[in-house]
Amino acid sequence: MQAFVGTYTRKEGHVDGKAKGIYQISADTSDGQLFRVSTVPNIVNPSYVIYSPDGKYLYAASEIGGGTDSTGYVYAYSLSGEKTQLLNRQMSHGLAPCHLAVHPSGKYLFVANYMGGIAVYPIQDDGSLLPASDVQYLEGSGPHARQEASHPHSVTIDREGRFAYVADLGTDKIMIFLIDQNSGKLEPAATPFAQVAPGAGPRHLTFHPNGQLLYAINELNSTITAFSYDRADGHLQALQTVSTLPMDFTGDNTCADIHIEPGGRYLYGSNRGHNSIALFEIDDNNGEMTPKGHQSTSGEVPRNFAIDPYGKFLYAANQNSDNIVYFRINPASGRLEPIGELNIPTPVCIQFEPVRPPS
């Protein structure tokens, strides 16, 4: 199975990037082992990558943070076996673009700029990107030192493609937008946002496979918040918030990524500082989370991580120790068993090709 790894290629803020671009890798679906395939060069800090729903195209955020640059970029590539070809790029309309989402229809790409707003790009039939059809700039602040302004950190689209959910680390809000699928425009939903605790800093979101729940990992206070999700109007209602850390941990920590395995029973979140993956079991009846322990990532600063499409293995990208460590998921307990690692410079994102039903 094919996958791509996003990286940092140059020094950007507190990150000392060492990579050469986007790394194409393959994963053995029987034992989880990873192998390097090729490198996609000539892109600065491709910190987030994502496939099109049909697996024919790859999109990458070029996380440029300022200095001599006035904007970040989003890149489009076509994929054919081990061959990757650049199609084009567009300005991200902000600095530090850090997350991408593709509409389920494959018609639009969404980008979250940590220092800027949310941009929407129509995708042409050949996979290339047209100029942005909409840009939304958010406002607000929060009580934490890093919340001096709005900081959109991710965009998540519901399975029907009707709503876009923006985790705004700077305002402690999850903004909710209606998506006009004809024009590529966004407008605030009837209930335009959901609130998390002051100073929590929501970062990434994930929907439960049942389509009735959404979970937010909060970077600044190391928690996860569960929400019920109304598919009719997009409204979110907070249900529960739990810590991602052991009770006896006293060091510094920030959270990063969150995923649910395909069966919907276990949820995982990454801790940077404690350097672990936190495990929770999800209650079938009410969606509440029960902590089930932690697994060291055997590296430093696990940024994003990925679960393979079959739910058998978890892959953690340790940004500051230049390695991807992978684990077998115990189907009975959800616990993680370390089984190997692959050295990749400054890895921060892993994306597996989508699984498509046989034709």
Word description of this protein:
With 359 residues, this protein is mainly beta. Helices cover 0% and strands 55% of the residues. A hairpin with a 3-residue loop joins strand 23 and strand 24 (276-282). The two termini are 18 Å apart. The protein has a 4-stranded antiparallel sheet with strand order 5-4-1-30, with no helix packed on it. It is globular and about 50 Å long.
Strand order of the largest sheet: 5-4-1-30
Helix segment tally: 0
Assess the beta-strand content as a share of residues.
Answer: over 45%
Distance between the termini: 18 Å
Brief synopsis:
By secondary structure, this protein is mainly β. It has strands spanning 2-7, 11-12, 15-16, 22-27, 34-40, 46-51, 57-62, 73-80, 83-91, 94-102, 108-116, 118-122, 134-136, 152-157, 163-168, 173-180, 185-195, 202-207, 213-218, 223-229, 236-243, 254-260, 266-272, 276-282, 289-296, 302-307, 313-318, 323-329, 336-343, 347-352. 50% of the residues are buried.
Features:
359 residues, mainly beta, four-stranded antiparallel β-sheet, 55% strand
Topology:
Blueprint: E1 2-7, E2 11-12, E3 15-16, E4 22-27, E5 34-40, E6 46-51, E7 57-62, E8 73-80, E9 83-91, E10 94-102, E11 108-116, E12 118-122, E13 134-136, E14 152-157, E15 163-168, E16 173-180, E17 185-195, E18 202-207, E19 213-218, E20 223-229, E21 236-243, E22 254-260, E23 266-272, E24 276-282, E25 289-296, E26 302-307, E27 313-318, E28 323-329, E29 336-343, E30 347-352
Antiparallel strand pairs: 1-4, 1-30, 2-3, 4-5, 6-7, 7-8, 8-9, 10-11, 11-12, 12-13, 14-15, 15-16, 16-17, 18-19, 19-20, 20-21, 22-23, 23-24, 24-25, 26-27, 27-28, 28-29
